[in-house]
Design brief:
Elements lengths: L1 H6 L3 E4 L2 E5 L4 E3 L3 H12 L5 E3 L7 H5 L11 H4 L16 H14 L8 E9 L4 E8 L8 E5 L2 E3 L6 E2 L14 E4 L13 E5 L3 H12 L3 E5 L6 E3 L1 E2 L2 E2 H11 L2 H16 L14 H8 L4 E3 L2 H6 L4 E3 L2 E5 L2 E4 L4 E3 L2 E4 L3 E2 L6 E2 L24 E3 L6 H41 L1
Helix pairs in contact: 2-11, 7-8
The protein binds flavin-adenine dinucleotide and NADP nicotinamide-adenine-dinucleotide phosphate.
Catalytic activity: indole-3-pyruvate + NADPH + O2 + H(+) = (indol-3-yl)acetate + CO2 + NADP(+) + H2O
Pfam family, one: FMO-like
Enzyme class: oxidoreductase
Length: about 425
């Protein structure tokens, strides 16, 4: 530790990288989880460095979401620690409002990430007891590859770091229309009058289909298995809040039964429209597999009116068509793959104690935020922004405690040396 105080800011060269000693933790990722952790550390008086591969904070929200997106959960659940959303924000803030909030958040807690630095590898060096993090820079300004050395490493690269692109027969080799992932989709404006296949019926697939229908495109949505669709609100109360309240008192199966009855009262029977429900209830499914239920914000109405067509799984694509597993063939202009995301942690973190091969922590919430040797995970609880906030508070308290103890010891040592010097003088 003493070495770190002494070496802070000093640089040396190793495998032609600039090498930087960081006094405090390195946080990888400047999304909501990384920002929340940085803010909580700032409040504890702990310095930190945030590394971000993109050229902005919250790149998922700024660069990889469609225009019409709003938070699906109420603002009181989505706000980050230490700074609530502005009072005049609506119950479900828009993308722009959420980004503005995050920008103010970063400013308020003096969070200035190192942008355009993509972490290539991170490993714990047993001999020195330090983490070594190698990055490459995509910025023409700094441009250098770096190695950061630190005592604590906070992984905040997100559950949705990379898009999932399934291999489907003929999609890349034969299909001649446009193919994009939902993270590239911005608006349905340019698809007016076009036939678009939306692959996937999670929250992204539903909302992209709704947006396409609103822009007078002709969307078909692939539902290859089953899905829980719930109303965003039930009789004026957010479904999420009702579920959380019930879960305090009742077993999961009973909460699921109540929620499904309420959902049926609001949305009706969706099976006849091709939306089959999984055997497991929505909350149990979320707890067991992490699969989020879809919160309806209008897609169900478009499905009922026939503006969004539900189709079964895909057999394969040819030049301008798709063949479905039921034998039907559709003419298509474009395909939007709303096929989800994955964590990228296994591609760069050389560790297999805290994280498993799928890039998520092995332990379940609330024990997933802390590993060994100063390693932490923020935002991998499958509990959205609320889970990220809880992780951030825990991590900052944990590091802050050690930091304060060591700072106190350091000060005491300095005082002793000072007194000795005085007595010698
Ligand atoms: C379309 C969409 C809508 C969503 N809506 C909601 C919602 O309404 N409410 C809710 O609670 N949750 C929502 N979520 C869940 C989402 O995970 C959270 O909103 C939030 O973005 C998670 O924050 P994070 O910081 O953990 O991850 P991210 O926001 O993904 O941030 C991670 C950051 O790490 C950076 N990074 C990744 N790899 C590296 C690397 N190797 N080196 C350096 N930097 C790296 C990324 O560029 C990114 O900026 C949504 C997710 C999606 C995909
Ligand atoms: N405003 C919001 O709050 C908002 C909006 C969008 C997304 N999100 C969040 O972002 C995260 C990701 O959501 P997402 O909707 O992008 O992904 P997702 O929930 O992982 O859904 C992926 C969908 O793609 C389907 N799929 C995958 N491969 C397929 C294939 N080969 N053929 C047919 N279908 C295929 C899956 O079907 P199976 O189920 O059969 O595998 C599933 O329906 C979630 O946490 C979600 O809640 C939030």
């Amino acid at each position: 530790m003493e070495n770190m105080f002494r070496l802070m800011g000093s640089e040396e060269f190793s495998d032609r990288r600039r090498c930087i000693w960081v006094n405090g933790p390195v946080i990888i990722g400047a999304g909501p989880s990384g920002l929340a952790t940085a803010a909580c550390l700032h409040e504890q008086g702990v310095p930190f460095v945030v590394l971000e591969r993109a050229d902005c904070i919250a790149s998922l929200w700024q660069r990889r979401t469609y225009d019409r997106i709003k938070l699906h959960l109420p603002k009181n659940i989505c706000q980050l620690p230490k700074m609530p959303f502005p009072e005049d924000y609506p119950e479900y803030p828009t993308k722009r409002q959420f980004i503005d909030y995050l920008e103010s958040y970063a400013n308020r807690f003096e969070i200035r990430p190192q942008f355009s630095e993509c972490v290539q590898s991170a490993r714990y060096d047993e001999t020195s007891g330090l983490w070594r993090i190698k990055t490459t820079s995509s910025s023409s300004i700094s441009g250098a590859d770096m190695e950061y050395i630190c005592r604590w490493l906070v992984v905040a690269t997100g559950e949705n770091a990379e898009r999932v692109v399934p291999k489907i027969d003929g999609l890349t080799a034969e299909f001649e229309g446009e193919v994009i992932h939902s993270c590239e989709y911005k608006s349905g404006e340019k698809y007016k009058g076009k036939s678009v296949l939306v692959v996937g019926c999670g929250n992204s697939g539903m909302e992209v289909s709704l947006d396409l229908a609103n822009h007078n495109a002709n969307p078909s949505m692939v539902v290859r298995s089953s899905v829980h669709v719930l109303p965003r609100e039930i009789f004026g109360k957010p479904t999420f809040e009702i579920s959380m309240m019930l879960m305090k008192w009742l077993p999961l199966w009973l909460v699921d039964t109540i929620i499904l009855i309420l959902a049926w009262l609001v949305l009706g029977n969706l099976t006849k429209y091709g939306l089959k429900r999984p055997n497991m209830g929505p909350m149990e499914l979320k707890a067991v597999t992490g699969k989020t239920p879809v919160l309806n914000i209008g897609a169900v109405e478009k499905i009922k009116s026939g503006d969004v067509h539900i189709v079964p799984g895909i057999k394969g694509f040819s030049n301008h068509h798709v063949e479905l597993v039921d034998g039907h063939i559709l003419d298509l202009d474009a395909v939007v793959l709303a096929t989800g995301y994955r964590s990228n942690v296994p591609s760069w973190l050389q560790e297999n104690d805290l994280f498993s091969k799928n890039g998520f922590p092995k332990s379940a919430y609330p024990d997933a935020w802390k590993g060994k040797s100063g390693l932490y995970a923020a935002g991998f609880t499958r509990k959205g922004l609320a889970g990220a906030s809880a992780d951030a508070v825990n991590i900052a308290q944990d590091i802050g405690k050690v930091w304060r103890e060591e700072t106190k010891r350091q000060k005491m040592r300095t005082r002793v040396v000072y007194r000795r010097c005085i007595s010698l003088a």
